[in-house]
Amino acid sequence: MSQQQQQVQPSIVADDEIDLRELFSVIWQGKWLIIAVTAVFAVAAVFYALSLPNIYKSEALLAPVTEDSGMKIPGQLGGLAALAGVNLGGGGGDKTSLALEILKSREFIGRFIQQHDLFVPIMAAKGWNRGTNSLVIDNDIYNSEKQQWVREVKAPFLPKPSLLETHEAFMKLLNVSQDKETGMVKLSVEHLSPFIAKEWVTWLVQAINNEMRERELNEAQNSITYLTSQLENTNVADIRTMLFSLIEEQTKTVMLANVRAEYVLKTVDPAVAAEKKSKPARALIVIIATMLGGLLATFVLLLRHFSANRKS
């Protein structure tokens, strides 16, 4: 190493030490500014956190209902059913996946919102009164006395929220997940009222089971009608035997659909009204805001100092 390089290296180290000391010196000199800004952020965060309403979460644990027909379908019979467009069932996993996709679909949720008239609880509620167990409605959005929507919005929106707009808001409250290993399904709803959240989860479980039951019934009845017509048009003994077997399977599907209340998803742990809020995390909001205020004040202080040094 040359003599010139040896002289430069200590100089760089010395400059670093001077800069570090200068950094702490600037922070120490501006400590009151940092404290003041941090305090402002902390107080503002407290007021903001306290202004947020409590959100309650209700969750149900569901198990997929497995199909057990009690008899094995021969390959020849299965092939004939496929050609005829007849579903012999047995795909419990596929049926559950279909049910979950339907549950999250716009068409299903839209019908659910309309059936139970959930526009006001979703779009106009701003709080919950524990004493009266009633929702606090935002008068700037919905006039409860006149039962009229009064919110001010720009086109293409209207004072009364559309079904599409309400669906988007509802999907932010709904969460559906399935464990890949166990197949168990968790369905949860968050709302200002713990009792409404619990009620909606219960309704959703009933609705999706009824939806899948109706679909299976319609499909099975259409299959029986088709198979019966084909049975009348053939005299071949083997084909008639297969058609009778297919009709038997579809009749079994109709029987199960009419008997089993929880057709696709069976409730393992039903939804309950939560006693404790799930959010907001007010303490965390205050801590993050306070730290952000301190860091921001420190950054501005250092930026002003080094900007002034460059100009001088």
Automatic annotation (TrEMBL):
Single GO term (MF): protein tyrosine kinase activity
Top-level taxonomic group: Bacteria
Record bears the keyword RNA-binding: no
Signal peptide: none
Transmembrane segments: 32-50, 283-303
Pfam families the record matches: GNVR (PF13807), Wzz (PF02706)
Domain Tyrosine-protein kinase G-rich: 266-305
Record's bilayer topology term: Multi-pass membrane protein
InterPro entries for this protein: Bact_polysacc_biosynth/exp, GNVR, LPS_length_determ_N
Domain (Polysaccharide chain length determinant N-terminal): residue spans on this chain: 16-115
Keyword terms of this UniProt record: Cell membrane, Membrane, Transmembrane, Transmembrane helix
Places the protein is found: Cell membrane
GO-annotated cellular components: plasma membrane
Main location: membrane
The protein, known as: Lipopolysaccharide biosynthesis protein
Organism: Rheinheimera salexigens
